[in-house]
Structures are given as C-alpha cells and as structure tokens.
User: Fold this.
Amino acid sequence: MTWIIGIIAAVVAVAGLLVALGYVGYLAMLNNAAKKRGLSGGGAADLVRSRWAVAGGATAAAVIGLLITAGESVPGDIIGLLIAGGAGLVAKQGLDSTRKQLRGGN
Assistant:
C-alpha cells in the first residue's frame, strides 16, 4: 500500500516540476523575443523581469518536493506531493496571469 502512495506522490511531483519548468521556459522565450524587438519589446521585458522570482521559486519548490518524495516514508511522500503539487499550481496561475496580461486583459 505504501508503494502506491509513493508512486502517486512521485507522479504529482514530476507533473508539478514540469509545469514550473514550462513557466520558466515560457518566460525565457518571451524575454528573448522582447530583446529582439528592442525598444518596442520593453513592456514585455519588464513584465518578464517581474515574474522571474515566482517562476524560480516555484521551480525550486517543485525540485525540493520531488526530492522529498524520493524517501521511503509515507509522510515524506505526502509532504513532497503537497509541496511539488502546490508549486505546480502556483506556476500554472503565474503562467495564466502572464498570458492574460500580455493579451491586455488585465
């Protein structure tokens, strides 16, 4: 029974990490495009600069959560699941917010 919880925790932790890495990748691509546009990309570059901390923090939390799930204890698996899953949710909300703000939907 404990191995089932471990597998579920690992899957959720990996999913949270992938979402967080996707947010970092999106910001990196957006920053690159803004730099190529020069002065006209200044607004997007400023937005990206303001979002790096959230993306980096969510990614770090997801990595920590994934590492916690690597242990052999059920409480550790549950804690890791909550940390990494929460980080994935924060990254998803940040991504949605960034996309909405870029479209001008404040």
